[in-house]
Design brief:
single chain, mainly alpha, two-stranded antiparallel sheet, 52% helix, 6% strand
């Protein structure tokens, strides 16, 4: 995978190892996270949703449909197994509203299935969260990101994550019209949301 500097056109590189040309890909999985050439989070969100959906489906007969298990226990299992799979590596995501909506839609669908709330009841999403005593996806991601940022800030200055966190571009500049959202922008927004 090759990503050019901002503003430069993409040219497929020729990389050879022992006279064998390496395949150029747009996405690949590294340590369980999907990394895209363009830095987009779409492939990662789709993969996380699929994995969480698979895990949710496997627990259908044993947990969600079992009337002998309390709602509180079901929510605990959901938080431990499903939300963990859904939000894996979310502490370093640069989320946009479309990503949050997609994740929140899945979250609500799961909670409504666990609580046996049908769509015909017209129960608002906020009420579902209150009944389940479960936070929204946005607040969970915010907490993960702020926890990670605090961890990075406390690192020694020589550590690569801290250098990247405080780093600036030496050459080039960001476009003035609708620049891409950065991780720093997410952290700033999260801090503002928690202070207010």
């Amino acid at each position: 995978m090759f990503t050019p500097v901002p503003g430069a056109p993409y040219v497929e590189p020729d990389i050879f190892v022992k006279k064998t040309r390496l395949e150029v890909v747009d996405t690949f999985v590294y340590l369980g996270s999907t990394i895209s050439r363009d830095g987009s989070l779409d492939a990662e969100i789709n993969l996380r949703t699929q994995k969480a959906s698979t895990a949710f489906g496997k627990l259908e007969k044993r947990v969600w449909s079992d009337r002998g298990i309390t709602i509180k226990t079901k929510i605990s299992v959901y938080s431990t197994c499903i939300l963990t799979a859904l939000l894996y590596s979310s502490e370093c995501w640069t989320t946009h509203q479309r990503h949050l909506k997609q994740l929140e839609r899945f979250h609500q669908k799961c909670l409504r299935r666990i609580l046996n709330i049908k769509w015909q009841s017209l129960t608002p999403d906020t009420a579902v969260l209150q009944i389940a005593e479960c936070p929204s996806i946005e607040s969970l991601i915010m907490k993960n990101q702020l926890r990670w940022a605090g961890h990075v800030v406390r690192m020694e200055d020589e550590r690569i994550p801290k250098q990247l966190f405080y780093g600036e571009l030496m050459t080039g500049k960001r476009p003035q019209h609708e620049p891409k959202k950065r991780f720093k922008d997410c952290i700033k927004n999260n801090l503002k949301a928690f202070i207010v």
